[in-house]
Amino acid sequence: MAARRRLSMTFWIFLAPVLIAFMMVIIIPFFIGVFYSFTDWNATARTGGALQFVGLKNFTDSFSDPAFIHASIMTVIYTVINVFVINVLAVALALVVTSSLRLRNLYRVGFFIPYLIGGLILGYLWQFIFNNAIPAVGGFLPGFGFLADPNNLVLSRVGSSIAALVIVGTWQYVGYIMMIYVAAIEAVPESLYEAARIDGASQWQGFRLIMVPMIAQAFTITMFLTLVNSFKQFDVNYALTAGGPATMFMDKSIFGTELLALNIYRTAFVSNNLAAGQARAVVFFVVLVIITVIQVRINKSKEIEL
Amino acid sequence: MKKRYLAAAAEALMVLFLILFLYPFIIVFINSAKDSFSVTQYPMRLPEHWGQLLVNMRSIIVSPNIRYGSSFLSSVMITAASLVLLTILPSQAAWVLVRTKTRVSQLIFMVLVAAMVIPFQIVMFPLISWFRLIFDVTGIRLLRSYTGIVLAYIGFGLSLSVFMYHGFIKGIPLELEEAATIDGSSQPGIFYRIIFPLLAPIHATICILHGIWIWNDFLLPLLVLGRGNRIQTLPLAVANFAGAYVKQWDLILTAILMAMIPVIILFLAAQKKIIKGMVAGSIKG
Lengths: 306, 285
Prior knowledge:
Strand content of chain B: under 5%
Distance between the termini of chain A: 46 Å
Oligomer: heterodimer
Number of helices of chain B: 14
Strand order of the largest sheet of chain A: 1-2
Radius of gyration of chain A: 25 Å
Order of helices and strands of chain A: HHHHHHHHHHEEHH
Largest sheet of chain A: 2 strands, antiparallel
Number of strands of chain A: 2
Structural class of chain B: mainly alpha
Structural class of chain A: mainly alpha
Number of helices of chain A: 12
Helix content of chain B: over 70%
Largest interface: A-B, 86 and 84 residues
CATH class of the domain at 65-244 in chain B: Mainly Alpha
CATH architecture of the domain at 65-244 in chain B: Orthogonal Bundle
Shape of chain B: globular
Largest sheet of chain B: none
CATH superfamily of the domain at 65-244 in chain B: MetI-like
Strand content of chain A: under 5%
Order of helices and strands of chain B: HHHHHHHHHHHHHH
CATH topology of chain A: MetI-like fold
CATH topology of the domain at 65-244 in chain B: MetI-like fold
Number of domains of chain A: 1
Number of strands of chain B: 0
């Protein structure tokens, strides 16, 4: 009996710090946040002060705000392109660095480096490349003179700015995703390929019928990581385009490349409408949960056990 | 013979691609050694005087916006404190959760893991007003303080930590602990003397995964520490500086260079371990 009690004492003492931090940082703010999204909370009001309950007003207002609708569309477009480009390039690079090339370890390390640098710093760095370095290349490279024309700056148009966000997002993330594919590829037993070769399978068949199904578990992880991280993109958006350039949408001038996370942040702090920002964050959370559940379901059903 | 040429061509192509891929870093480096005129006029040329690099670095170190020394130190302290606590606290919690087979412990574990889907965005605004409320009521300063930001990192990082330790501890045979119990060790003694050292590979993975995240994080420090605070992390300092000196690219790029160098050196020194840890973490997580 005494031993039992000692164990349960240890149980709570060992668990307490984690539970306290969890309550303080996640659970309490989460519920306060959901509650606030139904009130007229703003920057001057303090917690628990005279908050008015406004029902679904913050949500209906958000869904009729052109900036929010545009940001949602742009986030979907950015996420789809980004997930596709990163994964295609990562698989291609993974195949290269698991081949018999002599410098394959150097490539692995090299492609991984951008992942170590934060999106904010990379955003500023690429802003310089798009605004200064590329026009300079246009200035001296024959045939590329159009790059030097200030009207052709990559970050001066919405379409090419989204492409720029994809380029930076891919550049930052591809090495990490590549390494996950590398680990999966290296875990496939060599004997499977040998058996296939003896049966007369071509290289392409080996890739298509052995490697792809065998690394399906890696696809679940890489899809999850790229999907969630693209959807949550904030740092690069903030530093590279800051939402610009402006564009007209539903008869209103809005930020053309503002993604959802930046829109939420700006609604709360720049427009000083915390309740509306919080309502958008709730929508953001619900969509994120739905996307991840669907994605993991689909991918899991395609995995095979060895 | 033909095959060998083909292999050499493939190798050359990849080297070229790698150089192109890493060229942005070269651009940062060469332009950190230019003055404000030539950085915008000739961004692709090599600098005329490499000595300018030291001049620019000095400007960054003495700049009141970036306060490189103190920002670097703050980043190191916040990252280190968070990592120490994100290994010790979640590992002891995971251990009691694994070793106590009750419904309560299962429920706690499930809630902790399920919380991983909660994005920062939904918690960030209420977190600030909640921290402010705590200060108003108790006088404990969580906003604009080390305590607050480290607490926030523990909160956001603990789910993944607990999950990974939980998975690993499940595989440790109970006999190890039973022998120590017979020898008269206390429960905490068993954990810290026997189990905690066994978790070394998970400690490494967790430090790498969380370390890269915390070191580079921007939004959380922006909200918890605020702009222009005495305490600021390196990403915050760079954002501050780039905001204050619009288009002063010579100095912005030097600041970027100085923010990147420590990380790249650390990475190159331990790259095998870091890549392995990252990949292991993602596969388990």
